[in-house]
Amino acid sequence: MIDLYYWTTPNGHKITIFLEEAELPYTIHPIDIGTGDQFDPDFLKIAPNNRIPAIVDNEPTDGGAPLSVFESGAILLYLAEKTGRFLPQDFRPRLKVMEWLFWQMGGLGPMLGQNSHFALAAPEKIPYAINRYVTETARLYGVLNTQLQTNEYIAGDYSIADMAAYPWIVPHRKHQQNLEDFPHVKRWFEAMQSRPAVQRAYAQGKALDDRIAASKAQAKP
After folding, report:
1. Whole-number Å distance between alpha carbons of 4 and 99
2. Which tens digits make up the pLDDT trace of 188-214?
3. Residues 6+ apart with CB under 8 A from 215
4. Strand (E) positions, 81-216?
5. Do residues 163 and 101 share a domain?
6. Sheet holding 67-70, edge to edge
7. What's the number of domains the chain is made of?
């Protein structure tokens, strides 16, 4: 059983997608980042960077005591190694998946996160910052579009690279991107969106959002 410490962000969705694809049993422990749950001392014991997601594997690969893993890329790699799925064993295909996983972790996620911050969350709208990150988002979409021109999925076969990238493309409208401008990304996005495991993962997120909203509504005087 996997204990998943989770919130409904792109990085959180990555892990529910994998768990649903692999049909691994898991329990979600909500970490409400809007109320500061990520700074709780108990959570920091498994996620010292005070970010979701994190997991505790109660039946780890080495057969030892429960094992905690933080950082979404590390979690995807761990789960892929644990299950032997969505990460090729052959050297060159494996390296290709690793390249695109790290591309997402080092580029797509951070840049799109800054896009969201300056365009939607920052108390002061700074045109230079908004333009910088919208432009960089478009560049990264272009990189992905080129890769998908000759590949059904990002690294060839379906892999953790796709699970890592897809949740960051879901809010493309908020990031001021039009998928019609990136036809290969659009084709891949629709293929990802249609996968039953991806749909189940996002249903988990919606159910949690709905429960939290209902709880907050009840708490109002």
Report:
1. 25
2. 999 999 999 999 999 999 999 999 888
3. none
4. none
5. yes
6. 26-30, 2-6, 54-57, 67-70
7. 2
Question: What phi and psi values does residue 29 have, to the nearest 5 degrees?
Answer: -115, 105
- 3-state secondary structure (DSSP) of residue 68: strand
Tracing tokens 């249903």 back to the chain, one arrives at: 203
Closest residue by Cα to residue 19 from 206, 203, 200, 207: 200
Residue 142 pLDDT exceeds 90 = yes
Query: What DSSP designation does 56 have?
Result: E
Place of tokens 């962000």: 9
Each residue of 47-98: pLDDT tens digit? Answer: 999 999 999 999 998 999 999 999 999 999 999 999 999 999 999 999 999 9
Structural domain includes residue 106: yes
Q: Inform me whether the pLDDT recorded for 220 exceeds 80.
A: no
Q: Where is 57: in which H helix or E strand?
A: strand 54-57
Report yes or no on 216 lying in a domain: no
**Which structure tokens are listed for 3?**
């204990």
Q: Are 26 and 2 in contact (CB under 8 A)?
A: yes
Contacts of 61 (CB under 8 A, 6+ apart): 78, 81, 82
Q: How confident is the model at residue 159 (pLDDT cuts 50, 70, 90)?
A: very high
